[in-house]
Amino acid sequence: MIDAHQHYWQPQRGDYTWMPKGHPVLDRPYFPQDLAGHLTDHGIAQTVLVQAAASVAETDYMLGIADVTPSVAGVVGWIDFENREDLRQLERLKQHPKFLGVRPMIQDIADVDWMLRGDIEWAFDALVDLDLSFDALGFPVHLDNFHRVLTRHPGLRTVIDHCMKPQIRDRMDGKDAFTAWGAGMKRLAEDTDANCKFSGLVTEASAGWTIEDIRPFADHVLDCFGPDRVMWGSDWPVCLLQASYDDWSKTAEALCSGRSDGERERIFGGTARAFYRLAD
């Protein structure tokens, strides 16, 4: 099994600008020893470590962790798409055997159309040229623009993070949080080769969520993308806002219980291994 999306961080570095100061769950260090027991309990041999700060220093920090942590199979880092000189950083980082690709923190950028700007087009081209992966992090409002970017760059190896964060809490309050999101995700699945991370759903729900609150969104992603393009991730420690590692893992397994053994193997390991080209 592979956890295709988790984080380690050290807030004292000072570059986690999104993190609420003093938050009892988020504003504290998380290191490999904090996750090791959960990996053992769930039979998870490898993880993909994903950036949580918008700095190249974060990428180097994570690669340092990966160097001494055998369970970290690969690192998704960050470079500044607004600085063309960071092509040199991308070329340097590619030389590390555990560097997989990058994730701009689009969900935190106020300009919804940021990804369409001409001055960042070079970064998408560079990822294609260097054969590196792109983690697409956003909200449902970004779906149309991600469709435009991905269809413009058919060679861009893309995985959609956290199912594009459908607002499950709104649906729990009786609002329609499914229709537009569902249509946008279906369009991405049909028109692009993007993969999707089966992660982050509980964080978009309200306290007291149940598996039935999550099920329509999980089923839609699994049906649209299929097991060959869906990979499970914990989003630990962010998931702790709404669920323990154990709770989310068991929920995900229950949501996939109707799938065949081969399909579950791909969702919980094989898809991530193939997409990120992870060594055994």
Number of domains: 1
Quickly give the CATH architecture.
Alpha-Beta Barrel
- Shape category: globular
> How much helix is in the residues?
25-40%
> What name goes with the CATH superfamily?
Metal-dependent hydrolases
Description of the structure:
With 280 residues, the protein is α/β, with parallel strands linked by helices. Helices cover 40% and strands 12% of the residues. It is built from 10 helices and 8 strands. The chain has an 8-stranded parallel β-sheet. Helix 2 links the parallel strand 2 (46-50) and strand 3 (72-77). Helix 7 packs parallel to helix 8. The model has no long low-confidence stretch (mean pLDDT 97).
TL;DR of this structure?
With 280 residues, the protein is α/β, with parallel strands linked by helices. It has one domain: TIM Barrel (Alpha-Beta Barrel), CATH 3.20.20. 40% of the residues lie in helices and 12% in strands.
Descriptive terms for the model:
TIM Barrel; 8 strands; 10 helices; 280 residues; alpha/beta; 8-stranded parallel beta sheet
Detail the topology: elements first, then pairings.
Blueprint: E1 2-6, H1 32-41, E2 46-50, H2 56-68, E3 72-77, H3 87-94, E4 99-102, H4 121-130, E5 133-136, H5 143-152, E6 157-160, H6 168-172, H7 179-191, E7 195-198, H8 211-225, E8 230-232, H9 245-255, H10 261-276
Parallel strand pairs: 1-2, 2-3, 3-4, 4-5, 5-6, 6-7, 7-8
Helix pairs in contact: 3-4, 5-7, 7-8
